[in-house]
Amino acid sequence: MIYQVSGTNKISKLFNGWNETIIWSCLQGVMGHLYADSIENPQSAMAILGDFCFLAGVPNQELVSFKPEWCMQDFIIMSASSNEWFKVIEAVYGKRCTKVSRYAIKKEPNIFDERKLQVFAEDIPDKIKLTMIDKQMFNYCLRNDWSRDFVSLYKNYEEYEKLGIGVVALSDNFPVAGASSYSRYKDGIEIEIDTKTEFRRRGLATASAAKLILECKKKNLYPSWDAHNPWSVGLAEKLGYHFDKEYQVYEIRGY
């Protein structure tokens, strides 16, 4: 049987060594959910938030197969602490899972060159304006597929206003690019970046991300970055981050 649990010391120990803000969000009770094979003596645990699921402890097929009742999505990205977990994932999901690479970026406070970031934030085409995500922009982002992940993990604007932070680039008063807090943990955020297809390659992602990092610094929040492709790694490095390592996850369709 699988149980919903809180971030107790016993659960936290299972995730020792993970440098993932999604896990921290769950353990800290800020966002997300935790599940385990036992409340009193957990040996296996799962942290799930948005499109991401992390598995730790002793590999457990029941936990890998488990889908919370509240979870309506058909897609999820599973990461695990060992190859033994990967074997269980493959056994459970078969052709529905695909092994892919992601790219970890080092978490290094106080590495950012604020003057350089300010230059990036101001280097935008004419008729483009950067603005913070307010209630109107929140609702717009939520209604559009390309920008939904900027705000989708927050119950409403009030929760986003309390926990989240984001920047959008406007063209004719409509968002065409942006950078926002995909998720929040106590000391920082996990960054989500995207640009509407027809506005790409104009420096809008760079400008939006630079502005967001500067705004995070004002609020003493760390802007964590995890890259899903080499292009994202390159953008992160341009902004001052440093590459850490490539790692493997499973994308599951038909979750």
UniProtKB/TrEMBL annotation:
Residues 125-255 form the N-acetyltransferase domain. GO terms for molecular function: acyltransferase activity, transferring groups other than amino-acyl groups. Signal peptide: none annotated. This is Zwittermicin a resistance protein zmar. Pfam families: GNAT_acetyltran. InterPro entries: Acyl_CoA_acyltransferase, GNAT_acetyltra_N, GNAT_acetyltra_YdfB-like, GNAT_dom. Gene3D superfamilies: 3.40.630.30, GNAT acetyltransferase-like. SUPFAM superfamilies: Acyl-CoA N-acyltransferases (Nat).
